[in-house]
Specification:
- With 352 residues, the protein is an alpha/beta fold.
- The two termini are 19 Å apart.
Length: 352
């Protein structure tokens, strides 16, 4: 089976994990030119990926709409729903694109039942096929160094109790939630490691104005945060997948500081590296967290987050989750389930 993805190969390994066991071929195409390609089905994941994560113009959006409608006449379109809407809530054309794809999908793969119920409420007129295929673990990521080696690389003391916020903090609310909760933790050797410095503008302690973190103010901010607040900002660029292990292994706890969203790949990253995980109860995570040994908190609640982070740093932890979650979210299982969904969609189209 040949599966067509009308975007460049993503850098987070989600599709790589599925492809590794898939009984067929994945075709990635940034030019979105299907003609002369032998394909059986089209799989759309992140609508932003059509435009390389930029907001399209009205003209570009309309052109893509026509292209998708022409594809739909020839091939079944499967939409794997990672988000309800783009993270940038001001991107009106991207929001329209999300709605258009949702309204025209033949099959929607949800990563949990919450998503399926939400979709049916938002798009009651779409009589597409719905199914659930959960998120895979990240078993392709390197995991061949020790915690000591990871900390030596970043210059972090072995005595520190390290909380890791991996990836980008998307807005000021997420940063303020994490910052406020961390400051309330009563441990002298605590440290918060944020792998990617925020790109947004926000207040610097002791200064009146608000600055974007670059140049002189970047260095000043990092110094203040590190010296006074025990917070380490490391890098603003995309993290190479082979380097991910350094970040995960230096941490005692992985903290997912999100206000409200549908899914979180970071949860499965933490499970892959057998970390203690602090995770909000929202979206598909509500059902996933049932029976899972993690430290959950109420989304947006600073006190609840502080309590979960404190418990994660003081509670003895033995990872007894291995067999259960390896069976449930092993990439081979997820890949086989995905193949079955695609096969069914192709057969339905063939049989009219």
């Amino acid at each position: 089976m040949n599966v067509y993805f009308p975007f460049e190969r993503p850098g987070n390994n989600f599709l790589d994990e599925i492809e590794n066991y898939f009984k067929g071929t994945f075709i990635f195409d940034t030019n979105q030119v299907i003609e002369k390609k032998k394909i059986d089905i089209i799989n759309i994941h992140w609508p932003e990926a059509f435009f390389k994560w930029e907001e399209p113009t009205v003209v570009q959006l309309n052109e893509l709409r026509q292209k998708i409608l022409s594809w739909k006449k020839k091939y079944p379109i499967v939409y794997t729903r990672h988000n309800i809407y783009p993270h940038n809530k001001k991107a009106k054309n991207l929001i329209k694109l999300y709605d258009f794809i949702a309204a025209n999908a033949d099959v929607v793969i949800h990563l949990g039942m919450f998503s399926m119920k939400d979709f049916k409420i938002r798009y009651p007129n779409n009589n597409c096929i719905h199914t659930c295929v959960e998120h895979p673990l990240y078993l392709l990521k390197k995991n061949d160094i020790t915690k000591k080696e990871a900390r030596e690389f970043f210059g972090i003391s072995e005595k520190s109790k390290v909380l890791l916020s991996f990836g980008a903090l998307r807005n000021k609310k997420e940063f303020k939630l994490l910052f406020g909760a961390f400051q309330k933790i009563k441990l002298k050797n605590k440290k918060l490691f944020i792998s990617r410095k925020p790109g947004f503008r926000f207040e610097i302690p002791f200064l009146i104005r608000s600055y974007t973190l670059n140049g002189y103010y970047d260095r000043l901010y990092k110094k203040i945060m590190g010296t006074i607040y025990n917070i380490v900002f490391y890098d603003a660029s995309f993290i190479d997948q082979d380097e991910v292990q350094k970040y995960l292994l230096l941490a005692d706890t992985l903290v997912i500081a999100r206000m409200d969203q549908l899914n979180s790949g970071d949860l499965f990253l933490g499970l892959t590296f057998k970390k203690k995980i602090v995770v909000p109860k929202f979206g598909n995570l509500i059902e996933i967290l049932e029976g899972l040994d993690v430290f959950s908190y109420i989304p947006g609640n600073e006190v609840s987050l502080q309590k979960a982070m404190s418990q994660s740093l003081t509670k003895e932890f033995t990872d007894n989750r291995n067999q259960d979650y390896m069976n449930r979210w092993h990439p081979k299982k997820i890949s086989d389930e995905t193949y079955s969904v695609f096969k069914k969609a192709v057969n339905i189209r063939k049989n009219g």
